[in-house]
């Protein structure tokens, strides 16, 4: 499909620079089939789902993966996006033309790395010096990797260390938050349990590639960045049992959805998974694992807007986004949410 079909105009003031407080007070746009849109708030979620439904969360934890350093007199920015080994990460570099294979980049606070070869995704291999775990080095020298559309409007600050982390965050490795889950609070989880809604977690380490624009003119020519995910046997068994009993699997976030759809077979059975995925979902895709999606509002021409268009239909999502913009919904990572039920 032509990528320009997924374009739309978004007023700059629609981009949220801070999350709602409390988190579950964010707005929620209910889109259920062809029914009229419902303008709700996230706290209404228990009444919008059915007993036996399962919300599937991503328990990845965002690491402070942005570094600012020097290669000689040149300023170099690095965003780590994929672990390669104990002390090696792939990274996207700012001012990458000033860095050659074997150059040393000093990130301050006793953190330095040697640059290696370029990879097929346009990144550079960084090999960190010393014996401390890279995560310890990042806590000392790194910043939270806010999306470019927020970072270009204000500096990252200490508040982002908690704001840009979900209550489910447990497994270190993401360089972007699974933002649909930012809306959940302990109080909301209690209300969901009381309503008979079940919850499960899986792990997909979100990469910086999620923010990269689609440069191709046709979706067939776009190559997704790989992200590592895991679903264990016990979780897969519970998901399959819930669905067999009539419950719906509702992915909380496109990351959870993409991992579930990577792990499901043609028979609709979710299987254990521990591998990289490059799944790219566009209109025409047949969903096998999920029955709905809770997700924030995405960028024009993005793979994530293509995904929701595949789930709900291209014309329907054009109408959804036109309504959201007209009604003042807040967009992107710190913005409002939607509940999409085909």
From TrEMBL:
<dbReference type="InterPro" id="IPR003699">
    <property type="entry name" value="QueA"/>
</dbReference>
<dbReference type="GO" id="GO:0005737">
    <property type="term" value="C:cytoplasm"/>
</dbReference>
<dbReference type="InterPro" id="IPR036100">
    <property type="entry name" value="QueA_sf"/>
</dbReference>
<dbReference type="Pfam" id="PF02547">
    <property type="entry name" value="Queuosine_synth"/>
</dbReference>
<comment type="pathway">
    <text>tRNA modification; tRNA-queuosine biosynthesis.</text>
</comment>
<keyword id="KW-0808">Transferase</keyword>
<keyword id="KW-0671">Queuosine biosynthesis</keyword>
<keyword id="KW-0949">S-adenosyl-L-methionine</keyword>
<dbReference type="InterPro" id="IPR042118">
    <property type="entry name" value="QueA_dom1"/>
</dbReference>
<keyword id="KW-0963">Cytoplasm</keyword>
<dbReference type="InterPro" id="IPR042119">
    <property type="entry name" value="QueA_dom2"/>
</dbReference>
<comment type="function">
    <text>Transfers and isomerizes the ribose moiety from AdoMet to the 7-aminomethyl group of 7-deazaguanine (preQ1-tRNA) to give epoxyqueuosine (oQ-tRNA).</text>
</comment>
<dbReference type="GO" id="GO:0051075">
    <property type="term" value="F:S-adenosylmethionine:tRNA ribosyltransferase-isomerase activity"/>
</dbReference>
<comment type="subunit">
    <text>Monomer.</text>
</comment>
<comment type="similarity">
    <text>Belongs to the QueA family.</text>
</comment>
<dbReference type="GO" id="GO:0008616">
    <property type="term" value="P:tRNA queuosine(34) biosynthetic process"/>
</dbReference>
<protein>
    <recommendedName>
        <fullName>S-adenosylmethionine:tRNA ribosyltransferase-isomerase</fullName>
        <ecNumber>2.4.99.17</ecNumber>
    </recommendedName>
</protein>
């Amino acid at each position: 499909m032509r990528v320009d079909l997924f374009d739309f105009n978004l007023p700059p003031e629609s981009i949220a620079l801070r999350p709602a407080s409390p988190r579950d007070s964010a707005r929620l746009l209910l889109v259920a089939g062809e029914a009229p849109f419902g303008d709700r708030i996230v706290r209404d979620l228990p009444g919008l789902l059915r007993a036996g439904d399962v919300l599937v969360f991503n328990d990845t934890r965002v690491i402070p993966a942005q570094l600012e350093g020097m290669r000689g007199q040149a300023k170099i920015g690095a965003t780590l996006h994929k672990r390669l080994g104990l002390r090696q990460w792939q990274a996207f570099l700012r001012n990458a033309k000033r860095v050659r294979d074997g150059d040393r980049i000093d990130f301050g606070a006793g953190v330095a790395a040697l640059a290696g070869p370029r990879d097929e995704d346009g990144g550079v291999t960084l090999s960190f010096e010393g014996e401390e775990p890279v995560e310890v080095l990042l806590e000392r020298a790194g910043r939270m990797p806010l999306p470019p559309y927020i970072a270009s409007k204000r500096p990252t600050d200490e508040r982002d260390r908690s704001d840009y982390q979900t209550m489910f965050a447990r497994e270190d490795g993401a360089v972007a938050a699974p933002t649909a889950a930012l809306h959940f609070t302990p109080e909301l989880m209690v209300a969901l349990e009381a309503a008979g809604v079940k919850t499960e977690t899986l792990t997909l380490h979100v990469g910086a590639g999620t923010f990269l624009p689609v440069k191709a003119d046709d979706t067939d020519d776009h190559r997704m960045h790989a992200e590592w995910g895991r679903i264990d046997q016990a979780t897969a068994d519970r998901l399959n049992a819930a669905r067999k009993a009539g419950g719906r699997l509702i992915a909380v976030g496109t990351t959870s959805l993409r991992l579930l759809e990577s792990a499901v077979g043609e028979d609709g059975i979710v299987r254990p998974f521990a591998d990289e995925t490059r799944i790219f979902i566009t209109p025409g895709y047949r969903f096998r694992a999920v029955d709905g999606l809770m997700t924030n509002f995405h960028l024009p021409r993005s793979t994530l807007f293509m995904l929701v268009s595949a789930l709900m239909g291209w014309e329907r999502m054009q109408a959804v986004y036109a309504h959201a913009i007209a009604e003042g919904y807040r967009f992107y990572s710190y913005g409002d949410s939607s509940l999409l039920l085909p």
